[in-house]
């Protein structure tokens, strides 16, 4: 008698965002053996990424660099070299990470960031896919509650004004922001699409404001999961509840599309956070579970908190566990 063996397909999970929160979740999902595609924002114009972008007119490499490291199977020494950042005494290279320079060089060699990242993914033994949200650098624009507008992610963050809406434009005149077909195919074939964690207006929404990316997120059969921030952010989400975050997402895509929200319920200890080091974070996000359910969202609340270095972060393993379960449920359902 021949015993039948059920074939196993790794759950397909697309994670969309940028910033420091994204690699934490990706690293944990990588350890859970998920089939991961990371779609990374290309609207950053601050720090080393911004300097390289201004000099070379390439997609900012910083968020892409951190995602590559999170999904790489290279020995840790190689990753430490890739992540090494020159100190302020090295005036010519001050503040630049070696990985940023490598990505910028490959972008020139391959005539675009998308092919460059695919080449680097092979070199770094990436398990999964890393896709820039656009093959061209984009500019984030914001409309504030006082009626003013501003272009540029770093300037928007520093403006310390209440943001009403954001949108993206091409850095080059006449360029209409769009994602390559690999990004759209990944979203449409996914079991789960994860938004965040990360800054709502400057890490998550810049991706969704690319027209074909936003449309794909609306049309996919995947479970769309929003990982709500633990803390409110100065100049972005001051006084926001978790439901307020989702309302902004729905308003920008003109439709309710978030299926499940992951919400941290563990308290941050008083006086734990280093307010000078993490000066953009304010208070814990307040809960409005009735508001979330009124928006059509399933709520998964748990202790997703990880405290380290006097900062507040998501526990990547806890988030990955919930995301994986939701992806498996969606795969069986579809």
TrEMBL record:
Principal location: cytoplasm
Protein's UniProt keywords contain Cytoplasm: yes
Record's keyword annotation contains Cytoplasm: yes
UniProt-listed InterPro entries: CofD (IPR002882), CofD-like_dom_sf (IPR038136), Gluconeogen_factor (IPR010119)
GO molecular function, one term: LPPG:FO 2-phospho-L-lactate transferase activity
GO annotation, cellular component aspect: cytoplasm
Keywords from the named record: Cytoplasm
Subcellular location: Cytoplasm
A biological process from GO: regulation of cell shape
Similarity comment text for this entry: Belongs to the gluconeogenesis factor family.
Functional note: Required for morphogenesis under gluconeogenic growth conditions.
PANTHER family given in the database record: GLUCONEOGENESIS FACTOR-RELATED (PTHR30135:SF3), UNCHARACTERIZED PROTEIN YVCK-RELATED (PTHR30135)
Name of the protein: Putative gluconeogenesis factor
Lineage, broadest ranks: Bacteria, Bacillati, Bacillota, Bacilli, Lactobacillales
